[in-house]
Design a protein that fits this description.
This protein is of the alpha/beta class and 281 residues long. The chain is built from 9 helices and 8 strands. The radius of gyration is 23 Å and the shape is elongated.
Length: 281
C-alpha cells in the first residue's frame, strides 16, 4: 500500500485547469445574485481569459456552487412553418430609467427577434413588430399574446372568444395579414416557446452583461443592450442546438421563411385617433 501513496499524493495535489478561474466564477455568480449565469456563458468568458478546458469540468464546479433546479414539466406543442409567432414583453427595470425587451419567437424554427425599449406603448409595440418581421424574413399567419392592454382591452365581451381589441393594434394586424390569438386566462404558459426564450434571454444575455457593467460601475442602457443583443442572437442564440428541435434555429428559419407571408409596407394608421373599438374573433 505504501507504493501507491506517492501516486495518490501527486494526483491529489495536481491543480485543475479551472483552479485559477474559480475566484472569477464565484465573483461573477455573486454579482448576478439572485439570478444565475449559465455555464455556457461563463465558459465563453473564461475561454477568452485563457481557460483551456472543457465544459464538463466547469459544470462540475458550478454544481458545487448551486444545487441543480428540478425539471419544469411543460407540454410541448409544435406548429407548422409560418403558422405561428409568439410575442411577449420582458420587464428588466422600472423607475427613472426603465428597460424592457420586446421578444418575438417563431413557433417552428424558434428563431427570435429582441428589441430593448424604454416603454411598452402601442406605438412602440407596432414598431417592434415591423422590425421583427424584417429581421425574421416575413409575417406568420397567427401571433399569440397574453393579456397585454396594448393588444386586448376586454376578453369575451360579445361572447366566448369575441374580444375587444385595441383599435389601432387591430388595424395593424389586419394591415399585416396576421390573426391575433390570445392565451387562455391565467395560462400564459400556453405561449411557452417565447416564455422559455425569455428565460434564456435573461440568463444567457441580460444577467451576464448587466452584472459585468455593474461590476464596472455602469448601468445597461437601451442603446448598448440593442447593439449587444443583435450580436448575441446572431452568434449564440440562433447557432445553439435547441433543446426541443435538436437543430439550430438559424437552420430551421431558412425553411420557415419559405412559408411566411410577405412583409407589408410600414403601417401609417393613427393609433391615437378616437374611433370606435372593434371586436373580432
Amino acid at each position: 500500500s505504501e507504493g501507491r501513496n506517492p501516486q495518490y499524493e501527486r494526483r491529489k495535489k495536481r491543480a485543475s485547469k479551472l483552479s485559477s478561474y474559480e475566484a472569477y466564477l464565484r465573483e461573477r455568480q455573486a454579482a448576478a445574485h439572485p439570478h444565475w449565469i449559465p455555464a455556457t456563458v461563463l465558459h465563453r468568458e473564461i475561454a477568452a481569459l485563457g481557460y483551456p478546458g472543457g465544459m464538463s469540468q466547469l459544470r462540475r464546479f458550478l454544481r458545487g456552487v448551486k444545487p441543480a433546479l428540478p425539471d419544469d414539466p411543460v407540454m410541448r406543442f409544435e406548429t407548422a412553418p409560418g403558422e405561428q409567432m409568439q410575442v411577449d414583453w420582458v420587464e428588466f427595470r422600472r423607475g427613472n430609467h426603465p428597460l424592457y425587451a420586446f421578444c418575438a419567437t417563431l413557433g417552428y424554427s424558434r428563431a427570435s427577434y429582441v428589441e430593448f425599449v424604454s416603454d411598452m406603448k402601442v406605438g412602440t409595440l407596432i414598431d417592434c413588430h415591423q422590425r421583427a418581421f424584417g429581421a425574421l424574413g416575413g409575417v406568420s399567419r397567427r401571433i399569440l399574446y397574453d393579456n397585454m392592454k396594448t393588444v386586448v382591452l376586454e376578453r369575451d365581451v360579445d361572447g366566448p372568444g369575441k374580444h375587444r381589441y385595441h383599435a389601432g393594434f387591430l388595424d395593424y394586424a389586419k394591415h399585416c395579414g396576421f390573426v391575433i390569438k390570445l392565451c387562455r386566462p391565467y395560462r400564459a404558459r400556453t405561449k411557452g416557446k417565447v416564455e422559455r426564450f425569455n428565460g434564456y434571454l435573461r440568463r444567457s444575455f441580460y444577467v451576464p452583461l448587466a452584472t459585468k457593467l455593474k461590476q464596472a460601475g455602469l448601468q445597461l442602457d437601451v442603446v448598448t443592450a440593442n447593439a449587444e443583443v443583435q450580436h448575441w442572437l446572431r452568434e449564440v442564440a440562433h447557432e445553439r442546438i435547441h433543446g426541443t428541435t435538436k437543430m439550430k434555429p438559424v437552420e430551421r428559419l431558412q425553411e420557415e421563411q419559405l412559408h411566411l407571408q410577405a412583409i407589408p409596407a410600414t403601417w401609417r394608421g393613427d393609433i391615437a385617433a378616437a374611433r370606435p373599438r372593434e371586436t373580432a374573433p
